[in-house]
Amino acid sequence: MADVLNKPDERLDLRGTPCPLNFVRTKLKLQRMPVSELLEVWLDAGEPVEQVPDSLRSEGFLIEGLEASPEGYFTLQVRRPTV
User: Fold this and answer.
1) What DSSP letter does each residue of 17-71 carry, written as one string?
2) CA-CA distance, 48 to 36, in Å (whole number)?
3) d(CA 8, CA 6)
4) CB 74 within 8 A of CB 42
């Protein structure tokens, strides 16, 4: 079975990080990355996976994928827009 997520340029493991700190750390990481690079973020189930993607989208970041892992966390792929 092919992996539907793309190979990320960088990864950020935020398992165990509470809201809104996980959003803040993701946003800061994306702002330090070159435009259009792909960041993969590992998030816990519940509030983190419910809030972080929506918050990033509202800030103008591009959500490219969100998948549940067999280990119980979620893999979010997000890209800093070119504009």
Assistant:
1) PPTTHHHHHHHHHHHHSPTT-EEEEEE-TTHHHHHHHHHHHHTT-EEEEEEE-TT
2) 23
3) 6
4) yes
Structural domains of the chain in order of their starting residue, each with its CATH number: 10-79 (3.30.110.40)
- pTM, two decimals, is 0.91
26-64: per-residue pLDDT in tens?
999 999 999 999 999 999 999 999 999 999 999 999 999
Q: In this structure, which amino acid lies at residue 74?
A: F
| Arithmetic mean of pLDDT, 64-77 | 96
Q: Show contacts of 17-23: CB within 8 Å, 24+ apart.
A: 17/44, 17/48, 18/48, 19/47, 19/48, 19/51, 19/52, 20/51, 20/55, 22/48, 22/52, 23/51, 23/52, 23/55, 23/56
